[in-house]
Amino acid sequence: MGKQRVAMIQSLAMMMNAGLPLIDALATLEKEIRHKATKKIVRKITAAVESGIPLWRAMEQQYLFSPYELALVRIGEEAGNLARNMELLSVQQEKDRALRAKVKMAMIYPAIVMVLMFIIVMGLGMFVLPNLIQVLLSLNAELPITTRAVIYITGLFTEYGAIGIPMMLVGFVVLILLAKFTRFRVVTQWLAFRVPGIGSLARSATIARFGVILGGLLQAGVPLTEALRSLEDVTYMVAYKKFYKKLLEHIMLGDSFSKSFAAIPNTSKLLPISVQQLVITGEKSGTLSDTLIKISEIYEKKAEETAEKLPVILEPMLLLFIGGLVGTIAFAIITPIYSVVGNVGR
């Protein structure tokens, strides 16, 4: 429903900025939507608004919209500039969607390489190596440890391949689900942040979201504490989520950003010193929202550049890994054959 939600907000913002009243905009939106589930949600929102419920409350009842989106709509309704806030929300959602799309595109190449490598290794283990192993065993030569390891692994593939490979695929899917919906994502995110290229991309994208969400909420008139709470709610990176929670606690006690950054351990690992200084300067000068938006633009550009360079960064690592694997298998097979041929020659 993510794409449908973004499209719904963009259409609503466009119609309201054109001067269409909210009820008419919702009615028009319901007519033009083809997605059944989304049409049902818009119908419920329209009915709630017609009965006198505020738009943000009607949206909240559908459990589809994030706290960030609800906060922008609520502040817009209360301040009388709902159309402006909806337009701001649609622009920021489009930026966020474009950034995530670039990150996904950057990950396609390494994912394809890893899948093809898995298929090739499975094919070698089940169909090619067993025949070669029979030849090696018939030579009655002393086998090196690498050859014995290949023979052992090939035996496992031959005996348990029909059960083991489906179980490995199921285990991979379960691992993805655990990383997405459970506390196990702490481990996967920790590993992702330490992979060359992927780590810098994830960090740049997260800082860009920090700037665009917090800056957008402050621009729309949302109080700082509520903006930080919304930022915490919509953040999926566990380390940053904990950091935003601690930052909110310090801000609620009356601390400035300068004191808060100094009091929270390992702040510089999550937010670079330059970003901290920009935030502190923006707070002192009263231009915090504009500064945060500028930070988001800088790090969006960095994330885009890293996404473009990521295949170049990962390609040597993948080639070294694949070359090492193929070389090990070739060495394990060829070494005993050369040994036997040398003995015959002597």
Walk me through the topology.
Layout lengths: L1 H16 L4 H11 L3 H15 L4 H6 L6 H13 L2 H57 L6 H37 L3 H8 L5 H22 L4 H11 L3 H15 L4 H7 L3 H4 L2 H13 L2 H58 L1
Helix pairs in contact: 1-2, 1-6, 2-3, 5-6, 6-7, 6-9, 6-15, 7-8, 7-15, 9-10, 9-15, 10-11, 11-12, 14-15
Write up what this structure looks like:
The chain has 346 residues and is mainly alpha-helical. 85% of the residues lie in helices and 0% in strands. It has 15 helices and no strands. The protein has helices spanning 2-17, 22-32, 36-50, 55-60, 67-79, 82-138, 145-181, 185-192, 198-219, 224-234, 238-252, 257-263, 267-270, 273-285, 288-345. Helix 6 (82-138) packs antiparallel against helix 7. The longest helix has 58 residues, at 288-345. The relative contact order is 0.10. The model has no long low-confidence stretch (mean pLDDT 81).
